[in-house]
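User: For my dataset I need records formatted as: sequence, then structure tokens, nothing else. Please produce one.
Assistant:
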Amino acid sequence: MNTLRWILGLTLVLVGGGYVALLVFSNGFRRSFGASENNQLLAILPLIALGILLAALVWPANRMLLHTGALAAAGFVGLCVWQMISESATILWLGILYLVLWLVFYWWVAWRVPTV
């Protein structure tokens, strides 16, 4: 389980860093063409959700963080499915795969009955 936490955490940090870099570069690119910047609320919400998922990985003993992370993961799954339906973004299967692995971690930590 510890290996799964490391894999999920490192993947989350890489994706979050890539998201921030893409957001910064895309805003500069959009301004160069005279377009408005990305909506900051829509830019910050995924980062907050990624932070919650990462916090639940770092402190798995905090059940409130785990449950909040599960809600964030479920929201991300819904967003991925909606984007796949509306824009045919099939690459989001990778996001769904990651979130399924995160929910397996959640089940393992929060709901598995320990054996004596």
